[in-house]
Design a protein that fits this description.
Structural class: mainly alpha
Protein name: (wild Malaysian banana) hypothetical protein
Order of helices and strands: HHHHHEEHHHHHHH
Pfam families: ROH1-like
Keywords: Membrane, Transmembrane, Transmembrane helix
Number of domains: 1
Membrane topology: Single-pass membrane protein
Strand content: under 5%
Strand order of the largest sheet: 1-2
Family: Belongs to the ROH1 family.
Oligomer: single chain
């Protein structure tokens, strides 16, 4: 979807849904319109954002969905989008009438740093979308194997079994290549993006406190419209988390408390991008990033716990060599190994026990295939929505800064 033509959400969400975001957008433009000059309104909205973030990560920590499963990742993105709307509403209210000067130091620097992180997050979204497309291609190999092993109700012959083994072996090789290449063997060949092809609009090239244009030079400055061959997910995460420090007391006072929500959303953005890279095959994946939040934040304990759990899981032997920590990828790998062992070699006649084991393996593989078919479609829609909404929020935020610099 062309970024500049985007006027709102047109895609459904898996759980929370578009309706909640639509309601929140209406609140941004109606509630704030009547509270611009209410001194207590800002404090209430700041507290509401902290509670929203705390509830999100507490829910994710205690969720019935397995950590880094498709359902869990979709819930994370749903919650992030709602928090982003809360933050957008705060900035909108401040710029429209609360008389908080967004361009006054140190708030201007904090906001510029946040918008710079948002630009870097767009590249992660592009890489993740490519990773989702990679998973789709892997699923097609599963479908070939399932079609061969289903037999159409007929007794399986040697030719069908060999065809299934060939599809599974080719898929296993693809996944091994992906692990060894760190995600760069296939993903970098496409260079697609959610955004519009061609040159980037001038006002989207603004980034960072210095207002420098984002260029394609360097490993993590790829204009967000595509992921270059030298791009690195690990370095990109380090760039997003660079200098992400909690606000000091004087910064909180000097910014009318706005330093707190800026740090909150920067931390949430960082964690969401880190979790996506952990789950989905990406070019040069790496999770060795520093993440720390002071305990005085209501959401600190839950988000830190999730970060530690994911990182510890990544160090497990069966996860360490994986091309992605998504639960469904791990399940897929187990199914491939099990069925490949059963089909290698293809010996006839089979014992009744081996036929039963094969049938159970096929059922398990079919379950994985169906889960990925539905889940990947929804996940791509949400990642696309995160991309578009991040672009929109950044553009609006830069406009707010510009108006603060040049009041009417």
């Amino acid at each position: 979807m062309p970024t500049m033509d985007y006027q709102g959400s047109s895609l459904p969400f898996a759980s929370i849904g578009r309706s909640i975001l639509s309601i929140r957008r209406d609140q941004v433009h109606t509630v704030h319109a009547g509270r611009h000059h209410d001194p207590a309104a800002l404090d209430l909205d700041l507290e509401a954002l902290q509670k929203r973030v705390a509830d999100l990560f507490l829910d994710l920590s205690s969720s019935d969905d397995d950590l880094l499963s498709l359902a869990w990742v979709r819930k994370l993105l749903d919650g992030f989008l709602v928090c982003q709307e809360e933050f957008r509403g705060i900035l909108f209210g401040c710029s429209q009438g609360r008389r908080v000067n967004l361009s006054r130091p140190p708030l201007d620097r904090l906001l510029s740093d946040y918008f710079d992180r948002a630009v870097k997050a767009l590249d992660v979204c592009n890489a993740v979308r490519d990773g989702i497309d990679q998973l789709r291609r892997w699923r097609r190999h599963l479908e070939i194997a399932l079609a061969a092993l289903s037999g159409g109700g007929r007794t399986l012959g040697e030719g069908q079994l060999r065809r299934a083994r060939k599809a599974l072996t080719e898929l296993a090789i693809l996944m091994i290549d992906e692990k060894e290449a760190g995600g760069g063997s296939v993903l970098t060949l496409r260079n697609r993006s959610f955004g519009r092809a061609g040159k980037e609009p001038p006002h989207h090239r603004r980034a960072g406190s210095g207002g420098a244009a984002v260029s394609s030079s360097g490993h993590h400055r790829s204009l967000s419209w595509s992921v270059s061959r030298s791009w690195s997910a690990a370095r990109q995460l380090q760039a997003i988390g660079n200098n992400l420090t909690p606000p000091r007391g004087n910064e909180v006072t000097a910014t009318n408390g706005l330093a707190v929500p800026v740090f909150t959303m920067s931390s949430v953005l960082f964690f969401v991008m880190w979790a996506l890279v952990a789950a989905i095959p990406c070019q040069d994946r790496g999770l060795q990033t520093h993440f720390w939040v002071p305990r005085n934040f209501s959401w600190a304990a839950s988000i830190t716990s999730l970060h530690d759990r994911i990182f510890e899981e990544s160090k497990r032997k069966e996860r360490k060599s994986s091309c992605g920590m998504l639960k469904e990828i791990h399940h897929m790998e187990k199914c491939i190994r099990h069925l490949t062992e059963l089909l290698d070699p293809v010996d006839f006649p089979w014992t009744e026990g081996k036929e039963t084991e094969l049938r159970q393996g096929v059922e398990e593989l079919a379950e994985v295939c169906n889960t990925m078919k539905d889940g990947l479609e929804q996940l791509e829609r949400q990642v696309r929505e995160v991309f578009l909404r991040t672009v929109r929020s950044r553009t609006e935020g830069l406009d707010c800064l510009s108006k603060s610099h040049h009041p009417e």
